[in-house]
Design brief:
Keywords: Kinase, Membrane, Phosphoprotein, Transferase, Transmembrane, Transmembrane helix, Two-component regulatory system. With 152 residues, the chain is of the alpha+beta class. Helices cover 28% and strands 28% of the residues. The chain has helices spanning 5-19, 39-55, 114-124, and strands at 2-3, 24-30, 35-36, 63-70, 74-81, 128-134, 138-146. It has a 5-stranded mixed beta sheet with strand order 2-4-5-7-6, with helices on one face. Strands 1-3 form a two-stranded antiparallel ribbon. Strand 4 (63-70) and strand 5 (74-81) form a beta hairpin. The structure holds adenosine-5'-triphosphate and magnesium ion. Residues 48, 52-53, 56, 81, 83-86, 94, 99-101, 106, 110-116, 139 line the site of adenosine-5'-triphosphate. Adenosine-5'-triphosphate (ATP) is lined by residues 48, 52-53, 56, 81, 83-86, 94, 99-101, 106, 110-116, 139.
């Protein structure tokens, strides 16, 4: 179905404020078309990336910037945190099932499936997920999905 991204994001951000009251969530949504997607699957992808941004950031650095943009071909959604960062050597591994980077933030309560799920779902939706990161500075996950313009 076609998703109105402003409204869709608002639902997620409202829930996130309640789930993580100490997360500073900044967002900018700048799109002109609706996005063809399954809202249940897209919500799960957002949820996983938000959970990670929260979990892998120190208590005084829980800040997440989300940008939703549209260019000629794609919707581009960026999740930028100020967390612990991910070493370049891990960029491929983190998308594998049950893979978890060894660090002090990774003790319990995680399975290592979140990003594998995000990768499968974005691929299923014809899109893509990429990571860029700097240790002790932060991480950016970028989702892109092809624009399918609504036929009249
Ligand atoms: P689950 O999502 O199943 O609860 P998880 O968070 O450990 O477990 P993934 O979401 O797949 O698993 O992430 C894989 C690994 O990538 C994590 O264990 C973590 O080390 C690293 N990682 C993921 N997101 C971030 C992030 N935003 N900042 C720093 N490290 C991250
Ligand atoms: Mg996770």
């Amino acid at each position: 179905e076609y998703i109105e991204l402003n409204e869709f994001c608002q639902h997620i951000f409202d829930a996130t404020h309640i789930k993580y009251p100490d997360l500073q969530l900044n967002y900018k949504i700048d799109v002109k078309d609706e996005m063809y997607a399954d809202p249940v699957l897209l919500t799960s992808v957002f949820q996983n990336l938000i959970d990670n941004a929260y979990k892998y950031s120190a208590p005084d650095r829980k800040v997440l910037d989300i940008r939703v943009q549209q260019n000629k071909k794609n919707f581009v959604i960026l999740f930028k945190d100020r967390g612990i960062g991910i070493d370049k050597k891990e960029f491929n591994s983190i998308f594998k099932k049950f893979y978890r980077v060894k660090n002090q933030f990774n003790q319990q309560g995680s399975i290592g499936l979140g990003l594998a799920f995000c990768k499968e779902i974005t691929a299923f939706m014809g899109g893509d997920i990429k990571v860029d990161s700097q240790m002790n500075v932060g991480t950016v996950f970028t989702l892109s999905f092809p624009v399918e313009v609504k036929k009249a």
